[in-house]
Write a structure and sequence with these properties.
There is one protein chain. By secondary structure, this protein is α+β, with helices and mostly antiparallel strands. It folds into three domains: 80 residues, Ubiquitin-like (UB roll); 145 residues, no CATH class; 149 residues, no CATH class. The strands form two sheets. A five-stranded mixed sheet has the order 2-1-5-3-4. The longest helix has 39 residues. The relative contact order is 0.04. About 2% of the residues have low confidence.
Length: 496
């Protein structure tokens, strides 16, 4: 059998099963689509297309159709016109009817889902294909069954210990012991006990602890410092929970309790494992054994987790607010603590800039004021970058008789003063170093400092100034940055 995909004229496709040597392909497709044969035409192939009309008796093998091949269907125009009926009028259903249909579809969907899950579960245990669903279901069911068996065994252990229906089977050839004395030993034994239901006794292979080791173990578990761990340990120390989580400790406690009962001549009576724990470590707090166990529901656990998250978020926001407040206070304090020395230094720098500008314009205060306001500048370095025409235009507002020659002279003075001021700033206003560089190396401008990169000049500057090579290199680097930022200083130099 072949499976072919039939592409419909109105869109979509339908899978049709076809026998290779059976009925004609055209009749099979028409019957599968429920259409009259004379109204359909098949198109087989992609590059070389074959048109199959009604009455064509060729089979799928004769037409060369392969498995999972896609063929197209065309409806003939005449037949379409004859069979096409006007679309039926759509009437709005009452809202109640729509709601009922939605509920019915939802119930059918739930039913389909349950049926699918049931089929998958049955298939998983019948040795079906090992797909992801089957593997997951087998693993989940195996874990559930193992947990159920473990809890059933724990219930039987507890009931047998209370009724005294258990016996210790020790090996015949010696015991594995962890100590030299009988008071501190642990031996591997088998415990046979009667189940709560049924007649066949069960058996556990456990490590039986002596009274001393059992006492140390219980004391260690119940004296942990962490509160959460201590609460979990107390819950697991209940005899019912011990039967599930630690058969070794449970059977050791049951044997100790039985021995105490025999010594007190309580043969045949039921023993209390809780009392045995109290007698084992009388100085510990055993109130939780008589208190009702309170298991938190999933909703309560989720509420606790949500409350903890909210508390942590609240503390985080509070810490962030305190940090922002501290930073604002520190910044405000820093602004308030701006010393008089810094303010004085700023005033001295402004006064020095004003003096330099006055020196360029021959101490003409009105001209300096007009230049500063008209060109919006405050230093000679900014003045040095002003075009000559702009300077002349602004200067004529204060001195109408100013000439281009005067503007050129003012710019030359500004460039020279800017170079000298920048040179001093790079050297940290160290007059001795500046004098040594000027007199012995011929270096007086930032351009000269930048040219110390030429081989031999850095070593000469180090020798003449007595500074380290790293410091001289820092002068050179700062000069290079300044020349890149203010290209007007590149042309001002004292040596070639």
């Amino acid at each position: 059998m072949l499976e072919i995909r039939v592409r419909l004229p109105e869109g979509g496709a339908q899978v049709v099963q076809v026998a290779e040597d059976g009925d004609p392909l055209h009749e099979i497709v028409a019957e599968a689509l429920g259409e009259p044969p004379e109204s359909l035409e098949l198109v087989v192939g992609v590059t070389s297309k074959t048109h199959v009309a009604a009455g064509d008796k060729r089979t799928a093998r004769e037409l060369g159709v392969s498995d999972r091949e896609v063929i197209s269907v065309r409806r003939l125009a005449s037949a379409q016109q004859e069979t096409t009926a006007p679309p039926p009028l759509r009437r709005r259903r009452p809202r109640q009817r729509q709601n009922q249909m939605q509920e019915q579809r939802a119930e059918e969907s739930v039913g389909d889902t349950r049926e699918t899950i049931a089929k998958n579960l049955v298939q998983a245990f019948q040795g079906g294909p090992r797909d992801n669903v089957s593997v997951f279901l087998r693993k989940a069911t195996r874990g559930f069954m193992n947990d159920a068996h473990a809890r059933r065994d724990a219930i039987d252990r507890y009931a047998a210990a209370l009724a005294g229906k258990f016996e210790v089977v020790r090996p015949e050839r010696g015991n594995a012991s962890n100590g030299s004395s009988n008071e501190a030993r642990a031996e591997f034994v088998s415990i046979r006990y009667a189940p709560e239901k049924g007649s066949k006794w069960k058996q556990d292979s456990v490590k039986l602890l002596s009274r001393t080791i059992l006492q140390v173990t219980v004391r260690y578990v119940l004296t942990v410092d962490d509160q959460d761990c201590a609460e979990a340990a107390r819950e697991k120390m209940r005899p019912r929970e011990l039967a599930l989580h630690s058969p070794n400790v449970f059977w050791s406690l049951a044997v100790v309790s039985a021995e105490e009962a025999q010594q007190q001549d309580h043969e045949g009576g039921e023993t209390s494992l809780e009392d045995a724990l109290r007698r084992l470590c009388p100085d510990l707090d055993w109130e939780f054994l008589s208190a009702r166990r309170r298991d938190k529901s999933a909703k309560a656990i989720q509420a606790e987790e949500t409350a903890q998250k909210l508390q942590l978020e609240k503390e985080r926001r509070k810490a962030e607010a305190e940090e922002r407040k501290r930073k604002r206070s520190a910044a405000q304090q820093a602004r308030q603590n701006m010393g008089a020395g810094e303010k004085r230094q700023r005033r001295l720098q402004q006064q020095a800039d004003l003096t330099a500008l006055k020196g360029v314009f021959d101490n003409d205060a009105a001209l300096v004021r007009s230049i500063k306001m008209g060109l919006n500048l405050s230093t000679v370095l900014e003045l040095a970058a002003v075009p000559e025409g702009s300077l002349l235009r602004v200067a004529r507002k204060a001195q109408p008789e100013a000439t281009p020659a005067q503007a050129s002279t003012w710019l030359h003075r500004a460039k020279t003063e800017a170079a000298a001021t920048s040179f001093a700033d790079i050297l940290g206003n160290d007059e001795a170093v500046a004098a040594a560089l000027r007199d012995k190396c011929g270096v007086t401008t930032p351009h000269d400092l930048e040219r110390l990169r030429i081989p031999g000049r850095t070593e000469l500057a180090v020798e003449m100034t007595g500074k380290s090579e790293a410091e001289v290199r820092s002068w050179r680097d700062r000069a290079a940055e300044l020349l890149e930022k203010h290209p007007i200083l590149k042309g001002i130099r004292s040596r070639g």
